[in-house]
Specification:
Layout lengths: L2 H30 L13 E6 L10 E13 L2 E6 L2 E6 L3 E3 L42
Antiparallel strand pairs: 1-2, 1-5, 2-3, 3-4
């Protein structure tokens, strides 16, 4: 065999080794991210934002919102308006906001005592069964 033939054979072997190692990495990654989904949001869409609490622990982070998507900087980066504060946030810290309650009206509640005042209001959904039978007023 000539020197160029040996060099060509070595290049072929190096290419094959690289392809095999790259394939293994991709296959491991695809199994690791099996349930991962790409997130994307539209401008004007309402979202929840994951904000770390005063501690450094991720356990105490909480979702706040609703916030509004103002601009899309990249596939993984958005400008979000959170109560008037505009922030640049990574998509991993965003979640779609599915429930939107714009107004809740509570009528005067009587309990049989004139002095009783109730300062709380709650939303009960039709599928909630914890409260038993609930009277619907329209």
């Amino acid at each position: 065999m000539t020197a160029s033939s040996l060099e060509l054979t070595q290049d072929k072997q190096d290419t094959q080794d690289y392809a095999m190692s790259h394939t293994d990495k991709v296959q491991r990654r695809s199994k690791y991210n099996l349930r991962a989904r790409e997130k994307s949001f539209e401008i004007g869409q309402t979202v929840l934002v994951l904000i770390p609490d005063s501690t450094s622990s991720k356990t105490f982070s909480r979702w706040i919102g609703p916030a509004v998507i103002k601009d899309k900087l990249s596939n993984h980066s958005y400008v979000v308006d959170i109560n008037g504060a505009v922030k640049h946030i990574h998509v991993d810290k965003l979640r779609k906001c599915h429930i939107q309650v714009f107004e809740v009206i509570c009528d005067k509640v009587t309990t049989g005592h004139e002095q009783t005042r109730i300062n709380h209001c709650a939303v009960i959904y039709d599928e909630d069964s914890d409260f038993g039978s609930v009277c619907h007023r329209h």
